[in-house]
Amino acid sequence: MSKLLDRRLIFVTGKGGVGKSTVAIALGLLAVRRGMRTIVAELASQDRVQRTFEQDGEPFKEVELAPDLFAISIDPQHAMEEYLRIKTGAVGHLLASSRLFHAFAMATPGMRELLSIGKVWELAQLERQTRGAAPYDLVVVDAPATGHGVGILRTPRTFADIAMVGPIARQGRKIATTIADPEFTGVIAVTTPEEMPVNETLTLRDALAQEQLPLDAVIVNACYPRRFDDGALPKLDDALRRTESPLARAALRAALSEHARTAAQREQLARLSDGLELDPAELPFLFAEQLGLAELGLLADALEAELA
Amino acid sequence: MSIAELLDGKRVCVCGGSGGVGKTTTSAAIALGMAARGAKVAVVTIDPARRLANALGLEELQNDPRRVEPERLAATGLEVEGELWAMMLDPKRTFDELIERIAPDAARAEEIKANRVYRELSTAVSGSQEFTAVAKLYDLNREGEFDLLVLDTPPSRNALDFLDAPGRLTSFLEGGALKAFMRPTGLGMRVLGRGAAPVLAGLRRVTGIDLLADLSTFFQLLGDMTEDFSRRAAQVETMLHASTTAFVLVTSAQPGRIDEAIWFRRTLEQGGLPFAGVVVNLVHHDMLGDREPEDLAAALGSELGPELAELVARNFDDYHLLARRDERNIARLATELDSRPLLLVPHFDDDVHDIAGLMQVHRYLFATQAERGRMIADVVA
Asked: What secondary structure does DSSP assign to B139-191, as a single string?
């Protein structure tokens, strides 16, 4: 873990619904505990739902969630305007205000991804290009779901190859080099111990290998506590048969369910470890109404212990 | 209300929802159930779990639905009066076929398929799955061979991606403002007026000339085909808005997912799209009811020993917390839905990515309200 947090840029990816954002923030919390100024960057307008429900603060700006823990939602359009202003002087200003240019740029295949990752790269620079912005020790990227997640890592190189000359090609090459540098950039896959997410994690590992990018850690989220071992099973069954109390019956049924679900999770975990040839880190399932700061803190504790 | 009533008279059922909520299994269960009731149904899916794919005989990516052999369906124990067809969409091939169909001749189609911008567009770009899924749905619907088409929308973080992505790609293909840049002597330039020249120059500087050349070639190759894309896009919109189409949202009862479901429904209705109802999977049903959570550990202690009894009690507390959470969230969704159907499917103990899982989901979806109530009562009694 200490090695992981030595990087400046960590991409957190995984299948939709496995708790990628939660793990990204927990990782950010852990980094802050170690005295690092950290930002968690969410890519694309994928948080539209959350924005709609809890619209607070200015969108697409760096916001301080807790001391030294920042968050930003990166929007390609906004990133492009910023980039043009910083990079290209008078021409940039002209382009930034041109609706036609926006239409062109936003419709160009891969441009949205390139702009998003360009902003991530900017956040991770010691000398920030955003005026008056302080540098971060760590940027944690809450990346899109795995399929697109690899795409977004590949985009800078694709662009460098396609465009060949001009600022975008130069920028693309620079970003591609940064991403390919294992000292600078790390990639984490988040999964749950279920069939589909495990499949996707194994596919992701192969896809990353193809891009010559390593998968630095795999984090299995939402693992049930192993409360009931196989030895307890006959006792629970017996008790269920004998008990007269409906309440006891419900509780025993819940215990048997838990045992079955845990067993199914174990099976998937084993499949994952075999496929990866390494032991993934496990985070507990949290029995909670909502995931608040307290729960995220628990996950940060668990991450620390697991990845120590 | 059962899903069968919901889909009565429908020709297209779009199952939307974000990842990890059992969308594929739900889509397959809907298709199976409707086939069992005598319809000829095709389910179009993107990335089914391997066991489910195998169970349906979907060994490879395909571009057309294949019939799931009746022998395979025998394993479900259902008497299937109609026909179940299934396909696992190959986005790249679907895109290629579309180009082949629309291109004026084979040579042009080949040129387009070899173009770098096209290759990027048809594979790497986010949105190509959504675009091709809708394109396939449209073609199957037009051909009219099926009574009902069930689309399992591509996995995404956000259920709404499915609604936006095809439009983004279409507007790129249509060219619109872009074509004006590409052919500075054409009508576009006149319309754009004098401001366009410096923008064009700036564009070259920022993007690099080769990208521009590629794009220019791409649009020249597309030529009049862009009109076909526009026409198709309009027809796809008509299909999605038709009263014979039903959008079914698949979700789970977690707070974030419920927020998303609420937002999804609002967006559908604002867009005039026919929203039919919500399937909530993975529900933890309340097993405590109005009983007092008396001292369980003590009650079970004599039977199980104090340690195990304590674990059972703690486990029950945890489960109950999830049940209460789900209940509250579902109530919130129900208020929002007004009287729109809300079908609950419990959180099963075993993995649902196979025929047995399919059947479990199927039983709940196709039960009447009363039957579903009895099944849940059985589970929690």
From this structure: HHHHHT--SEEEEEPPP-SSTTHHHHHHHHHHHHHH-THHHHHH-TTSHHHHH
Listed by number, the residues of chain A in 150-169 with a beta carbon closer than 8 Å to a beta carbon of chain B are 151, 154-155, 158-159, 162-169
CA B64 to CA B213: how far, in whole Å? 35
pTM for the whole structure: 0.86
Does B125 lie at the interface with A, CB-CB under 8 angstroms? Answer: yes
pLDDT of residue A54: 46
The distance of A278 to chain B (nearest Cα, Å) reads 23
Range list of β-strands (E), chain A: 9-14, 38-43, 63-66, 69-74, 138-145, 185-191, 217-223, 281-284
- DSSP at A105: H
Q: Which domains does chain A have, with CATH numbers?
A: 4-227+277-307 (3.40.50.300)
Mean pLDDT over B143-152 rounds to 96
Q: Which domains does chain B have, with CATH numbers?
A: 3-285+316-380 (3.40.50.300)
How far is it, in rounded angstroms, from Cα B278 to Cα B323? 19
Among B171, B214, B308, select the one facing A162 at the smallest CB separation. B214
CB atoms within 10 A of CB B143: 9
Interatomic CA distance for residues A63 and A25, integer angstroms? 13
The pLDDT of residue A290: 82
Are A260 and B349 in contact (CB < 8 Å)?
yes
- Would the CB atoms of B172 and A199 count as touching at under 8 Å? no
